[in-house]
Amino acid sequence: MKENLHIKALFFLILLGTSSSGIAQKTKLSPALPNIVVIYMDDMGYGDVDAYGGIDYTTPNIDKLAATGMRFTNFYAAQPICSASRAALLTGCYPNRIGFHGALGPHAPIGISDHEVTIAQMLKQKGYATAMFGKWHLGDAKKFLPLQHGFDEYLGLPYSNDMWPVDYNGKPFKDTSYFRAKWPPLPLIEGNKTIRYIKTLDDQGTLTTLYTQHAVSFINRHKNHPFFLYLAHSMVHVPIAVSDKFRGKSKQGLFGDVMMEVDWSVGQVMKAIHDNGMDKNTIIIFTSDNGPWLTFGNHAGSAGGLREGKMTTFEGGQREPSIIRWPGTVPPGTVCNKLACNIDILPTLAAITGAPLPPNKIDGLNILSLLKGDAHANPRDHLFYYYNKNSLQAVREGPWKLVLPHKYVSNTNEIPGKDGYPGKTHMDSTGLALYDLRRDPGERYDVQEQNPDVVQRLQQLVEQAREDLGDDLTNRPGKNRRPPGEL
């Protein structure tokens, strides 16, 4: 009898061990939620990184991202200006859908709405720790700041680093009647409180290091917990400034020095991820909010041969360098030529993490198939180019871009500024034009007469956009726009 009991007990233990082993095996095989890092540059142009053609300085860490990840060649910011682009990134919406346009100044009466869901809020539903370091620019009132929109931690500037009462030479304005002279001191905010002010160009030179130190600390503190880190550098937006670590290190002057420091920052983030053993389970997304502010000449970046720059819907204003790295999922050293946009990041992260999409309509599309290297995938077949409050200025489908009649601020044939001072610009205008971006990425040769069927097809897309989002250029209000947050 005792022998039978021993046999039964042994059988039970073996069975339990097998079951436990199976449970452990399943747990081991179940993929953990990936960490997510979004590094968002300010005014970095398509040609400003080594991997995209940068000259006279090196960006080895960003290049390493490209060598071990996927480099996009047709990736766009949703609008060619700061606040609108950032609203698009974080909500997955065309900014004009949610009441955003332009660049919000100090004491702006609007900001991101409580009714919109940010990437941070979405990921917190899956248990993510969230942090934002750097430039926010979605409203500077407390109700609009990051901690009220899904972020656990925040340190940075509430808006652009040139929104301060300081002239281009780094000294306070002598003419106190000038509107910029009436701006408040530039606040550095931690959480919801101003901890000090950025008063000089030397102070500006500390920002890249400061943001980076906080980013690395956040990574180190959350090595055993899934996290979302949004690192939004103030550079290379003017006034550009650099720490002593990189001053005078490049052959391109101060702009090159700043680019090298930004690259160092990317390297520090990558090192922290590697040192904590998180390489294979961390997604890094590197891109920019809009193209270069060309009027600042040697203190501005390069559009890489694309037409115009920031504040225009030509390619130089919205086509951005973009690199995504996720070892084990994104094929290393690959190039994606398919169309994608910063509004696609939110729904893609939702698909990856299983987080629920926002209840309100969004415009982004899931591009996970592109990240996996599916050569037949084409999740985004068209993109609308809006600017100003709600002006539809162009549409792209595949290689074709139809530019609609509109006025714009141009840098063409103007001598750019130098050493921190802007040059001249002028108002210009364009009529209806069709460009084949495969052969003419500089948008120089109008081919609408040879392709009337393409023009007609793209005009149908334009009409759909006007019905949905409206168009100030044709006095269409649109049916599906939502207001921003208001004070």
What would the keywords be for this entry?
4-stranded antiparallel β-sheet; 19 strands; 2 domains; alpha/beta; 487 residues; 26% helix; 11-stranded mixed β-sheet; Arylsulfatase, C-terminal domain
Structural features, described:
- This protein is globular.
- Helix 6 packs parallel to helix 7.
- 26% of the residues lie in helices and 20% in strands.
- The chain contains 11 helices and 19 strands.
- Strand 6 and strand 7 form a beta hairpin.
- With 487 residues, it is α/β, with parallel strands linked by helices.
* Topology, number of strands: 19
CATH architecture of the largest domain: 3-Layer(aba) Sandwich
Total domain modules: 2
Instruction: Summarize model confidence as the mean pLDDT.
Output: 94
Give the termini distance in whole angstroms.
Answer: 81 Å
CATH level 1 class label of the largest domain: Alpha Beta
Share of β-strand residues? 15-25%
CATH topology of the largest domain: Alkaline Phosphatase, subunit A
Instruction: Tell me the structural class.
Output: alpha/beta
The value of Rg in angstroms is 24 Å
Total helical segments? 11
Q: Can you tell me the CATH superfamily of the largest domain? A: Alkaline Phosphatase, subunit A
- Low-confidence residue ranges: 1-30
Q: Tell me the helix content.
A: 25-40%
How does the overall form come out from the CA principal axes? globular
Summarize the entry for a quick read.
The protein is α/β, with parallel strands linked by helices and 487 residues long. It is 26% helix and 20% strand.
Break the fold down into its secondary structure elements and pairings:
Layout: H1 2-29, E1 35-41, H2 60-68, E2 70-76, H3 82-91, E3 110-111, H4 119-124, E4 129-134, E5 153-156, E6 186-190, E7 193-198, H5 201-204, H6 207-221, E8 227-232, H7 254-275, E9 282-288, H8 315-318, E10 319-325, E11 334-336, E12 340-341, H9 345-353, H10 368-371, E13 382-387, E14 391-397, E15 400-403, E16 406-410, E17 426-430, E18 433-436, H11 452-469, E19 485-486
Helix pairs in contact: 6-7
